[in-house]
Write a structure and sequence with these properties.
- The protein is of the alpha/beta class and 287 residues long.
- The chain has 2 domains: 151 residues, HUPs (Rossmann fold), CATH 3.40.50; 118 residues, HUPs (Rossmann fold).
- Helices cover 41% and strands 22% of the residues.
- It is built from 8 helices and 12 strands.
- The strands form 2 sheets. It has a 10-stranded mixed beta sheet, sandwiched between helices. It has a two-stranded antiparallel sheet with strand order 10-11.
- Helix 6 links the parallel strand 7 and strand 8.
- The longest helix is centred in the first third of the chain and has 32 residues.
- About 3% of the residues have low confidence.
Length: 287
């Protein structure tokens, strides 16, 4: 059987200090798969800042707030674009070329961050984002949640530093869920390249359906050799997953993304948030 090939990567940048590592990761992965890399900056409308302004402010003050928001957005867009341009140059990508493998493009789209990223991510094979947290947790969390819960596309969260070969040693956090299975399918191109693949489960594996052994058989159909390991459920699941990945020396963690509804929006669940807060390596997720 042939695994899906990565032909188009969307990397969403926010103007954060972590943009350089995120863009580097996207271009590194793009080079591994000869994929097109498209950089994206979601440009908030200046007038949206009015929604956060308290009542009773004069029109002059409101105008100043909108103007300041516009200046900040421009500065962020310029910073994000510069990070993308530098990464493309370092990896031999020329921005502005026509569509096709090995090409790159940059765009700035006005709208809400999560909505813009979700909409543009739906026609990509992989969305690359910075880890939620870091220097700007609110901005990155909004981007991650939009991509994970509303794009239908696997999401690769870059580590603090760009890895030369993120798929060298892969750990799969397996609990038998549809989310974990979706993450595995999205990770098949990486798993095909991996030197080692470990299926990590927490707790009683007899209660996991499909079992880790079933996943081993499934991956074998794709000519991927995997081994299994089980950790005791004697702590928070997210922390145990991070510990297991670190013990294995993993360069990539694959796991399903959990969330719950709040005010009709999806937000990251506790175990997922715990992994993202503590993992110092790229994490490939799907929901």
């Amino acid at each position: 059987m042939t695994a899906m090939r990565i032909r188009k990567i969307l990397v969403a940048l926010t103007g954060a200090d972590s943009d350089s590592a995120t863009a580097e990761t996207a271009c590194t992965v793009g080079g591994l798969f000869a994929a097109r890399v498209e950089g994206l900056f979601a440009r908030p409308r200046p007038e949206d800042a009015i929604a956060f302004v308290g009542e009773g402010m004069s029109s002059a003050v409101v105008g100043e707030i909108v103007e300041a928001a516009a200046k900040e957005t421009k500065a962020r867009a310029d910073k994000a674009g510069a990070a993308f341009a530098a990464a493309c140059k370092a990896h031999g990508y020329t921005i502005g070329e026509a569509g096709g493998s090995g090409t790159a493009a940059w765009s700035e789209v006005e709208g809400l961050t999560d909505v813009v990223i979700a909409e543009h991510g739906r026609l990509a094979d992989l969305v690359v984002l910075g880890h939620p947290g870091g220097d700007e947790p609110d901005r990155t969390s909004i981007a991650v949640e939009g991509a994970l819960f509303d794009s239908g596309t696997p999401v690769l969260l870059a580590g603090p530093k760009a890895a030369a070969e993120p798929s060298s040693s892969v750990v799969i956090a397996w609990d038998g869920s549809a989310r974990a299975a979706a993450a595995v399918r999205g990770a098949l191109p990486f798993l095909k390249r991996a030197k080692s693949v470990l299926i990590l489960s927490i707790g009683n594996v007899d209660e996991i359906v499909p079992s880790p052994a079933d996943l081993v058989d499934y991956l074998a159909l794709h000519d991927i050799h995997a081994t299994t390991s089980t950790m005791k459920a004697d702590g928070a699941a997210g922390e145990r997953i991070v510990e297991g990945a670190a013990a294995e020396g993993a360069t990539l963690l694959v796991m399903g993304a959990y969330g719950h509804s709040r005010l009709r929006e999806m937000v990251l669940g506790g175990a997922t948030r715990s992994v993202l807060d503590k993992a110092g390596l790229p994490v490939l997720m799907a929901h």
